[in-house]
Amino acid sequence: MQVPAYYADTYEERARTRVAATGERDGTPWVAVEHCLFHPQGGGQPADRGWVDGHEIAPVRDHASGLVVAVACGETPLPVFSAGQSVEVRIDLSVRLAHAALHTAGHLIEAAGRAHGWALAANNHFPGQARIEFTAPTPDARLDTPDGREEATEALRTEVAKAIAEDLPVTAENDADGRRIVHLAHLHSASCGGTHVRGLGDLADVVLPTLKVKKGRIRVSYNASHQERS
């Protein structure tokens, strides 16, 4: 049995657990642990960086077993593990928090866009590529001019900054169908498999350059980081 601990606590950095299973994926050995700290790539978010007993690994979703498995990162193979073996697992918390901040900021920008009547069309929460794309059910004349696009972007910035200043909570729960729903207080709810900060006050350096309109889509690029709290 494997517990996706990355959902329970974004901020958990290390743990002592046991090997749940071992196997091979495309000829590459893998190990899966019971208390899994490692978030695999998916949902527009990159994978964590992690270690099992000091060996650097890359987490991937193994569709055959349904487990998140750890494969060797680089050319050095993993040692031989056995089911039930006690191991220490660890993630690079700075990388995790960078991903969580970008993912949460993306949801917040989506909420601000929806408040303008826009519908989500696509998203990407990767560092250096983060953006939210919308479609507008009815034409928005403001977006036809540079000044109008800047005005619309400034409205988004204001709404995002207000929510961060209020430090609205970020929570998650499973619905009746087993889907994980992430809530930004009263602002936004969405089915999501990513990691998130515990409150919007954890977001820092949220930057939204002037939005662009391409092929009928409103593209809002952004950046964000995690703010340390005392």
Automatic annotation (TrEMBL):
Alphabetized Gene3D superfamilies for the sequence: 2.40.30.130, Threonyl-trna Synthetase, Chain A, domain 2 (3.30.980.10)
GO MF annotation terms: hydrolase activity
Keywords, alphabetical: Hydrolase
Hydrolase recorded as keyword: yes
InterPro entries: Alanyl-tRNA_Editing_Enzymes, Thr/Ala-tRNA-synth_IIc_edit, Transl_B-barrel_sf
Regions that span the bilayer: none
Protein name as it appears in the record: Metal-dependent hydrolase
